[in-house]
Amino acid sequence: MVGRHAEREAIGRLLVSVRDGFSGVLVLTGDAGVGKSRLLEYAAESAQDLTVVRLVGVEAETRLGYGALHRLLRPYLGRLSTLPERQRDALNAAFGLTDAPPSDRHLVGLAALTLLSDAATAAPMLCLVDDVQWLDRESAETLAFVGRRLYADCLGLLFAGHDGTGVHDVFGALPVLRLEGLTDVEARALLADGVTGHLDQAVAERLVAGTGGNPLALLELAVNLGSEQLAGITPLPEPLPVSRQLEAHFRQAAELLPADTQTLLLLMATTPTDDQATLWRAAGALGLSIRSATPAIAAGILNRGIVAEFRHPLIRSAVHSAASAEERRNVQAALAATSAPERRAWHLAEATDGPDDSVAAQLAAASELAQTRGGYSEQALFLTRSAEMTKHPGKRAERYLDAAAAHLASGNLPAVQTLLELATPDLTGPTGRTHAIRLRASVEMVHARPREVPAMLLEAVADLGTTDHMASWDLLGEATRAAIMGGRTITGTTPREVAKATADAWCEPALPASSPDPLMAALARLIAYGYAAGAPALAAALARLRTADELQDQNTFSAMVSLAGDELWDIEAKREILGKLVTADRDRGALYGLSIALVSLAGVEIWDGRFAAAESCYDEADDYMTATGYSPSGDFHKALLYAWTGQEVELRAAAATMNAMAENLGLVLYRRSIGQALSIFEIGRGRYREALDALLAVFDHDPLVLGDINLAGMVEAGLRADDRKAAAMAMERMEERAPLAGTPWAWGLLARCRALMTDDDRAEQLYQESISQLEKVPVAVELAWSRLLFGEWLRRRRRRADARVQLRAAYESFESWGAASFAERARVELLATGETARKRTVDTQLDLTSQERHVAMLAASGLTNAEIATQLFVTTSTIEFHLSRVFRKLGITSRKQIGRKLSEADSDD
Question: How far is Cα 449 from Cα 111, in angstroms, rounded to an integer?
Fold first, then answer.
């Protein structure tokens, strides 16, 4: 190999990592012919001590969901029985091996990861995947997922694909190395090596400059230019065959071959290299034999070997693109006649010229089979092709809409928009129009742009009229969700109008306890008719969800549960329901929903003073966002944690990010969240005016989101900022709502606020009542806060001994959690009573990373390595690696010692 030193070093580092028991991933991109495939060959040559597995994407197979993944994993399907049950079921469903319902695509990804990792445990493995731009979407996303989850698995993944073909959309989160042309010196050396006769220096420079150092172009020129051209005697061709011209060059070479050889080449370009059975069945139907390949081998188009294959992937593309429509139809007809039923419909459609309702119906039926496997991209392609072959405009529009829905499920949002534009002109009835509007609204919500969604969905409800009550209700529920997110920024309607329409439409049908509908109806009732009307319904809805054996987190329902729990100060319902949703999302492999649920659960942990557990939730959520190809939510979701831990720089940055998102996307929810976090931070620092300003911005909107749990802070900030009017406004709302909520958290905060507002000795009993109520529920930070305020009150009345009891308890709690500002406030008060409060130090020997700490906590809870790996969507090898580091850092030799060691560390921190 000439040149490519940096690329070879990168591949070398990847192989060293695999040999050392870790993993490595690299994506090679660049123009056609630039040397990506040659580098894959170099990797294979350098990995003779590893198990090398190869996969090549095929343009004709891009529509077959999980088809490429099946080809890659086929040698290891005998290991399926060793997978955890849900992973095994997911992979079986994806490959159509059972009749199991489709699973979330990320559970399929975890199954593929486990299967490959288990195989690599026996012998370190290198997977080489060429032409990734021709992988079906499901396979590409699964392999990208695997690449993002590798860590200590003795497994390397090396991908190669063309620029400008969507490779970055799927594999962009992985390490990418773009190949440029060879340097002038390297290109001249390669060219000279390929020329047998004299090479004129000026000609060499012209070829190097004209090809941009493209290795394949240089080698083809060295072989195909005449000796006189290379010697500078006769002129060079114009233009030189580079990139697209290379394809033309290969097409011209193929056109010189016999007709039967050309037909065989086209058939080979249409079928996967490793599916020889399909290839030769179709070849037989066309009257072709192995002898038809001989002229192509002699011409250097096919490699000589046991399996005939194209010398370069670009030749495959050139042959396929050069064929006439009639030639392609003939080949597709042969494939239709000889392929398995699930592929026959597509081949039949490709062999048919013009609309054909019979073929369209077969494609629609085939799409249902794709859907049962979770192959939503494949389903969308079948439905799109079915629509194209449908004669009736209305039916064609329906199939375009169904295809758009499948693309939405696969995450291909641009395709949804395109299909909606194709379908809309021919939609005639309200059902079709409603379907289209709902798809448009879904796209907006995926982009977190709720502004126009409520009005859009209300229009659809009006169009439906009384024809379909359940469909209308679903639309109203989605409109309410969008109105909550967008608040006053929504256009064409108001949150109260949306909520009123939803509340008035609710008829409480017989539903399972797991249904989200009663909660959405209760939220709508609360917004539309006020707290007194909505709180009882909200409490009943949460109680109903707590009785459900299993919940399904649909459309990030966890966010609505979190808001409802906050509105009622019901931390116990919130924790229990969110816990069930997290479990359900884990079991289904629904990583996006799981990440949202974990962010909500982190808030529960914070209120109970479990800051380390909250940090683990946040980190795990970001990990899953990255794993699913989304940008991680980043630090802005940690605003509440930053507020409590006194990290001002991080909090201000989070506030700026969330305010920008609220402004640009209309997500009022973010602005309200940051108001809550800023107020807690400022109260901790004693900057009460700033805290009150942040709270008033929220209070003035009387928001559903995070409105009530801010009231106690507003009472305190108002009084300390000498703004009794603001404190009285918050107190009035607190007096109205806390009794209606009726939870210990609500009663505890109400008693605290009454104590703050009281100028006489009655405050003592109220503080004691607050502490008594808050001790009943897992809101340890609120309990410590009440103790702090009670201690301050006692000290001002010169009852130092009594004050020390409360202040010491508050200080020790805040200090142990890392609530720096509140701990300092308590320490200063404690010093004023005459007691010295010693600051604690952290044992640096227990400096676990967040991932190591999370794994350690799960191991301490009794989970096996396999169970932890399944829960965290990684491999057992990765868990074993993390635990080995945990054991070393904690100085232990058994997992039975982990819990005790972590408890000691927590008590010393």
Answer: 34
Q: What percent of the chain has pLDDT over 90?
A: 43
In which element (H, E) is residue 900 found? helix 898-908
DSSP, res 302: B
Q: In what order do the strands lie in the sheet with 155-162?
A: 51-56, 125-130, 155-162, 23-30, 176-178
Residue pointed to by tokens 């060499």:
204
Helices (H), 447-546: 453-464, 469-486, 495-505, 517-529, 531-546
Question: What is residue 702's predicted lDDT score, i.e. its pLDDT?
Answer: 54
Q: How does pLDDT run across 323-371, given as a tens digit for each residue?
A: 888 988 999 999 888 887 778 888 888 889 889 999 999 999 988 888 8
The full 3-state SS of 44-91, as one line of letters, equals: HHHCCCCEEEEEECCHHHCCCCCHHHHHHHHHHHHHHHHCCHHHHHHH
Cα distances from 458 to residues 335, 475, 476, 483, 502, in angstroms, run 48, 8, 7, 11, 10
CA 535 to CA 438: how far, in whole Å? 30
CA dist., res. 506 & res. 523, Å (int)? 12
Question: For position 634, what pLDDT does the model report?
Answer: 59
Q: Which of 690, 720, 738, 732 is nearest to 793 (CA)?
A: 720
The predicted model scores a pTM of: 0.80
For the ranges 99-108, 296-305, 749-758, the lowest mean pLDDT is seen at 99-108
- By the 8 A CB rule, do 114 and 105 touch? no
Q: How far apart are CA 644 and CA 610, in angstroms?
A: 11
Decide: helix, strand or coil at residue 34.
coil
Give the DSSP letter string of 781-823: HHHHHHHHHHHHHHHHTT-HHHHHHHHHHHHHHHHHHT-HHHH
Q: What is the pLDDT of residues 385-427, one digit of tens each?
A: 999 999 999 999 999 999 999 888 877 888 898 999 999 999 8
What is the per-residue pLDDT across 31-85, written as a single tens digit (0 to 9) for each? 888 889 999 999 999 999 999 999 998 877 777 788 899 999 999 998 888 888 8
User: What whole-number distance in Å separates Cα of residue 676 and Cα of residue 664?
Assistant: 20
Dihedral (C-alpha) 586, 588, 594, 600: value to the nearest 10 degrees? -80
The residue with tokens 């070849």 is 283
CA-CA distance, 119 to 135, in Å (whole number)?
22
Got the DSSP string for 210-223? HHTT-HHHHHHHHH
At residue 236, does pLDDT exceed 80?
no
pLDDT for position 63:
75
pLDDT value at position 402? 93
Rounded CA separation 640/638 (Å): 6
Q: Are strands 176-178 and 155-162 parallel, antiparallel or unpaired?
A: unpaired
Q: How confident is the model at residue 842 (pLDDT cuts 50, 70, 90)?
A: very low
The pair of structure tokens assigned to 626 is: 């990255």
Assigned token pair, 326: 């009639």
